[in-house]
DNA sequence: AAATCGTGGTA
DNA sequence: TTACCAAGATT
């Protein structure tokens, strides 16, 4: 494997970054940085947690909402977990939101309200692992930590034509990044590597012709950049099936409950659902309902998670009394603020529970989910 | 240490 | 439609 001159490499990369960096809400631009503006650790941390396995486009609106509602780590630490989960609803990987809140409380309770300033200390906090600890340390505290995300893995495996498949090649990649990371401007270097991966060294059809570090790249010499990184193929996702029961009161309120605090959609809200059987053929009738009511099958929804595809039969009932299980009634004016993950919003939509306005019976054509015509 | 954990966009 | 991907962490 050829050795890259770190000084020449980072000079080329940073010169490109100074001109072509992305403008992002949580970012301090190189111009601002040179003028002495420091990144706010809270904002860097918040954005990094949100950006884990999540696109910049999806994060922007959530970042703005969180920052407006909780401008400081103290504000976030003082919030109820349920409020954080509700604000996170729709962004996915909900353990991130639980850990976000736990981390804010740890910073307040154990670190005097200030984020620790080294990657090693940051990594001890909830939700902060190898990547995030290095990123915060580099961007907010100028520590020359090796920042390795998916972008960097792609860039480095191409630079060095690393044929070893991921994730086994991670230690090798990390060492390469550590060797390349400069003492000066380590935060800009990390962000430059990620911007390069996001805009030039893309997964498909990389723009090698305009790449600022092309002279250092082995893979592009043989036009093989697109072959990297090498990854093992993923297994096909199995199918599961279950049922959801949407009870509606006369005033339009829907009965919701809180899911267990850990595991799938941990801590999030839902209309009561059955367990999700590994068998895709599980014919679940109203006998599976959590409480007796005049249940009527009104539709079904499909939702694909990371490791399985779920089909839920959607049952609906008009209810007068209170169910004998834990939960609460959520009125039409409150439903959008509930901690409902996307799959559960699909369920409510299939049961004609609107998320806008109060007329849940509005004749809105069903664009998603199969509308069934039961015995009416 | 392989499995678990969401969602939306795109080829 | 299917498959893969996007600033990974936890157990």
TrEMBL record:
Gene: mutY
Protein name, per record: Adenine DNA glycosylase
Gene3D superfamilies: Helix-hairpin-Helix base-excision DNA repair enzymes (C-terminal), Hypothetical protein, domain 2, Nucleoside Triphosphate Pyrophosphohydrolase
Cofactor: [4Fe-4S] cluster
Function: Adenine glycosylase active on G-A mispairs. MutY also corrects error-prone DNA synthesis past GO lesions which are due to the oxidatively damaged form of guanine: 7,8-dihydro-8-oxoguanine (8-oxo-dGTP).
Signal peptide: none
Domain HhH-GPD: 50-199
SMART domains: ENDO3c, FES
Organism domain of life: Bacteria
Coiled coil: none
Pfam families in the record: HhH-GPD (PF00730), NUDIX_4 (PF14815)
Family classification: Belongs to the Nth/MutY family.
CDD domains, per database record: ENDO3c (cd00056), NUDIX_DNA_Glycosylase_C-MutY (cd03431)
Classification via PROSITE patterns: ENDONUCLEASE_III_1
PANTHER family per record: ADENINE DNA GLYCOSYLASE (PTHR42944:SF1)
EC number(s) from the headed UniProt entry: 3.2.2.31
Cofactor note: Binds 1 [4Fe-4S] cluster.
InterPro entries (alphabetical): A/G_AdeGlyc_MutY (IPR005760), DNA_glycosylase (IPR011257), Endonuclease3_FeS-loop_motif (IPR003651), Endouclease-III_FeS-bd_BS (IPR004035), HhH-GPD_domain (IPR003265), HhH_base_excis_C (IPR023170), MIG/MutY (IPR044298), MutY_C (IPR029119)
Species, as recorded: Jiella pelagia
UniProt entry keywords in alphabetical sequence: 4Fe-4S, DNA damage, DNA repair, Glycosidase, Hydrolase, Iron, Iron-sulfur, Metal-binding
Catalytic activity: Hydrolyzes free adenine bases from 7,8-dihydro-8-oxoguanine:adenine mismatched double-stranded DNA, leaving an apurinic site
Region (Disordered): 356-376
Tagged with keyword DNA damage: yes
